[in-house]
User: Fold this.
Amino acid sequence: MLFSSASAADEKVAQTAISIVSLSPPRIRVEGQLAGETTNWKFLDEYAGILSLSDRVENLRVFTADNSVIPVRRLKPGEFASASPANRFSYEVNLNPPAASVNAAHISWLTAEYGALMLDDLLPQVVRQTCLQVTMPQGWKLHTSEPQSAGGCFDIRNTEKAIIWAGRETRAYQGRTRAINFTFITQGKWSFADEEVVSSISTILKEHENVTGATPFKHALVIVAPFPVPTDAHRWSAQTRGNTVLLLSGNMAARTAALSRLNLSLVHELFHLWVPNGLALSGNYDWFYEGFTTYQATRAATELDFLTFQEYLDAIARAYDRYRAQVQAANHSLLAASEQRWRDAGTLVYHRGMVVAFLYDLDIRLRTNGKRSLSDVYRELLRRHAHGQLSQDGNSSVVQVLHSFMENAPKAHRYLMSEGVIDLTTELSPYGLEVEKRGAATRIHVASALQGAQYKLLRKIGYNDQVNRRH
Assistant:
C-alpha cells in the first residue's frame, strides 16, 4: 500500500487506449491524448521495492495536435523530456512476469492466458484520471471495479488505485454481506470449489464489518488467481488497491489444507479494504496497516475458528522468533522500520508490528476489564478518518488514537517509538502467559495458576481451560 503521486498542478484528464502487440512475448501498446500539453514524461520506476519498472517502456513517441513528431530525450530512469510541448503519446510496454513471483501482486504483467494491468505503472505519471479503452484478444474478458460507459470506456478516477484483470477463462460470482456487494473473480483449477471461496469471502467481510462498525466501500472486487509462473504451492502474495483485492496463490493438492491457507490469507488481505484503503491517512505508517493488521487478522481468524487459541499464540511466537532472527531487530523502532519497509526492514514491520500489537491488545483489555480491545482502536480510526475526509498524517493520527485508549503510555509504546529488543517473557507475565524455548522455537502458553483478571482476559481472547491445556 505505498503510492507515488503527481502534484495537483500536473494532473491532466486524458483519453488513453491499451491494446495487445503480442502475447509471446507479452507486449502492449499504450496510446493517449492529454487534455493539455506537457514536456515532462515521467513513468513509475520503483514500487514496493521493485526497481527499474520504467525500463519496460520502449519506443516512446510524442506528438503535437497536428500529428507532428517531437524529439524526446531521456533525463534519468523513468523520466523523459520532449523538445517542445506535446499532448499525444505512444509507446510499448514489455509485460513479462517478474522474476520473483511474489512481486506479481504488485506490478503489471501478462501471460498467454491471463494477467494484471495496474495503470499506475503503465500510464505516464501525468495521467491521474482517464477515459481508458482496452482491447484484448478474442475470448478474453476484463474485470475491474472501475465504472464503464456505454461506449466501452473505463472511467478511471485515480490511476494509482486502478487494477484491471484480463483472462481467457475467468469465472465470476456475485455475493453480498449486510452492506457490501462483492464480485469474486477466479482463474485456473483449484482443489476447492469456487463456491467455498464465495462463502469464505462473505463470512470474513461480515466479521470485519462487525469488528470495525464501518463499511469502507459499497462494492468490492476480489480476484484469486494462480501466479503467472510455477511457484511453491504454499506461497501467496496479495495487494489491495482501493476496493480491489488481488491475491495470487500456489495450489496445494489437499482441499482442506488449501482452503485453510486461503482463508487465512483472505482474512488478512480483505481487512486492507478497511485499513489503509478505508482511511484518509497518508505517510509511512506501515507498522500499523501491515504489522498491527497482521495481528488483527489473526484475532479475526481465531474468532472465525480458522485458528485455535493455541494456534493463535503460536502465530505470535513465530512472529517473535522471525523478528528476533533479524540482525537489525534492536536497531529500529517500528516507526523507523516503516520508513525502510521496502529496503531492509520489511519483515520487522510485519513481525515486530504483530508482537507489539498483541501487547497493546492485552494491555487495553486488562486496563478496561475486557470492555475494550485493539478492535476499538480501529473503530475509532475509521470514525475519525474515514476516506473522503481531509487526509491526515498516518503516524500521528494512529498514535493519537492509541493514546486515547491509555491512561498512561503502556510498556508496548516504547517498542513503537524507540529502539530496543522486546523481552517477551517479562511483557507477557502480567497477563497470565508464559514463554519457553523449545530448541530454537519460542512457545507461548497459559500459566498453570491464573489470577481472576488474567483468567477473564484470556477467556475473552479464546482460552478455554477445558480444551486448552499446556502441551
